[in-house]
Amino acid sequence: MSVNQKHYPPPRLAWAMWGLGAALYLIGFYQRVAPAVMTGELMKDFAISAAGLGNLSAFYFYSYVAMQTPTGILADRLGPRRLLGTGALVAGIGGLVFGLAPTMAWASLGRLLIGGSVAVAFVGMLKLASHWFAPRQFALATGLALFCGIIGAVFAGVPLRLLVNAVGWRPVMTISALVTLVVAAAIWWFVRDDPTEKGYQSYNPIMNEEVRRYSILAGIKKIFRYRNTWLLCLIPGGVVGCILTFSGLWGVPFLTTHYGLPPARAAALNSAMLVAWAVGGPVFGGLSDRIGLRKPLYVICNIALVGAWATIIFVPSLPLPLLTGLLLFAGLASGGMIIGFAFIKESVPPDLGGTASGILNMGVMTGPMIMQPAVGLILDLQWHGKMLNGIKIYSFDAYRLGFSLMLAWAVLSAVLILFTKETYCQQKM
Q1: 257-302, pLDDT tens digit by residue?
Q2: Phi and psi of 212, rounded to 5°?
Q3: Stated pTM of the model
Q4: What is the distance between the alpha carbons of residues 77 and 282, in angstroms, rounded to a whole number?
Q5: 3-state SS string over 324-355?
Q6: Which of 119, 162, 239, 420 has the smallest set of CB atoms within 10 Å of its CB?
Q7: Residue 335 to residues 189, 274, 292, 296, Cα–Cα distance (Å)
Q8: How many domains does the chain have?
Q9: Within a domain: residue 319?
Q10: Three-class SS of residue 113?
Q11: In a domain? residue 258
Q12: Residue 189: which domain range?
């Protein structure tokens, strides 16, 4: 036995392993919200309406959601290194397809490839965290993962808007794809699934042989025997559906049309809301670890964001400072959803933790997958024929009706949390 195996890995090495997975998650978030600042360009280039734009953006979520259950299972069986490296490779290829797309069909294919491939990032990071970090750091690492993702979303705000203004959206998306391919090579070269592969002691010695006791179907069935699995998969769709439908697609046109903000400033406000979300993740994740409870904070955060979104949606012509404060508050409160990943991990046996995380992440992304095109459909149905520079303009009432769909799910989420079973931050054995 190596001398190093008497010790856990040094923090610098552990964070470096986790950080390359986080780089892919950052790229995934960047690609997820990039259409929000290119709505006009995409609608013009591909001659599509709001419903068409919603569907183009949602192609990312269709494959992302479909990949979550197999990703969790593969993370348990094959390990995160192979998943993250392959995912980054396919994401780079998808980015090239999207950036060079001559038609809507090719653009949709590019979005589909990107979504399905970056779907491995979050679960891969969680799997790395469970092996490279002490259990008490898991919720914090999960929150920091969200923070890294939001950094990607910030790059897809004002910086992306300025670059699109300068050189066009296609060159920017093509260069982004090339960066992703570099990340793929770095992951394959450096990342290892477990500290033992570097000569250190593992925080999670449960290895793949134990997972193979279950067939894939049996593992899924086992996870869904626990009530928390069902509830925790439904809850985050309402939270993330709100913030990513707004900041990820419809927030910029809403703010420019009804609050008179320039596109760059509207993009900056959307980015600020995402930053608040990023801050809320590690804050509420770490606080949940500290107090030894999952449920109370989750309840408080969801009730708070319901109140903020209801005010934004139903009160027209809010003073800009108040609107800004409400958006930031909604973003901060949305960070509470990160508690769900530690919550569900503790609610099932540890050897199925990756599968459970994948299933939960499927629930997370179901929200924007459904809400983005649904809001676009409502906007088109409520359109009264007004156009500006070849782009459709929608009334406040149209946005209010569309955004009400998001709010309804958020209310349901707040109610469902009340029926979850507290784990007291203890792993179920």
Answers
A1: 999 998 889 988 988 998 898 889 888 988 998 899 999 999 999 9
A2: -70, 0
A3: 0.75
A4: 28
A5: HHHHHHHHHHHHHHHHHHHHHHHHCCHHHHHH
A6: 162
A7: 32, 9, 18, 14
A8: 1
A9: yes
A10: helix
A11: yes
A12: 3-417
